[in-house]
């Protein structure tokens, strides 16, 4: 975890869009996942959790199973219940957990922002939950078509979320650095007055009817 923790600031500066495009992988999560408060962002290793619809007992087990630098990634069936709130965020922070991604709802968003606990969800909901099924923790889950395994790298910001295998980390980071450097040179050329058609060599792709 040490290398990932040391790279956190750089990964967030590079951003999810650059990491995704540089990776060459189908590693983005569905855009339905949104930050529960403005400015939420995180980097960590996935701890997958599967919860029954309307039941958040599995999330409590997930908090116990996770540790410093981990991100709880939860399949809650996309149901708009308040699976997570202030109390669980405080418990998670005490264990060093970096954040939450859940296909389902969270609540207490003002308190989550005050705590600085990053939570990305598909709903904001105050609807209560039950505690009957302990679910699964650590087993692979599928979030809207994307498989997430324990130890996968998770990066989330206001643009979206990327999740990719840990054994791809060094390659993805190197590719993202190269892409960011290349884009910086493109921006310099654009500021000097060149067009995107020339900078990206798009003219070879054809000219629209009626263009000069």
From TrEMBL:
Enzyme class: lyase
Catalytic activity annotation: 4-hydroxy-4-methyl-2-oxoglutarate = 2 pyruvate; oxaloacetate + H(+) = pyruvate + CO2
EC number of this enzyme: 4.1.1.112, 4.1.3.17
One annotated GO molecular function: oxaloacetate decarboxylase activity
Record-listed Mg(2+) binding positions: 108
SUPFAM superfamilies listed in its UniProt record: RraA-like
Alphabetical keyword list: Magnesium, Metal-binding
PANTHER family named in the record: 4-HYDROXY-4-METHYL-2-OXOGLUTARATE ALDOLASE 3-RELATED
Protein known as: Putative 4-hydroxy-4-methyl-2-oxoglutarate aldolase
Organism whose genome encodes this protein: Amycolatopsis dendrobii
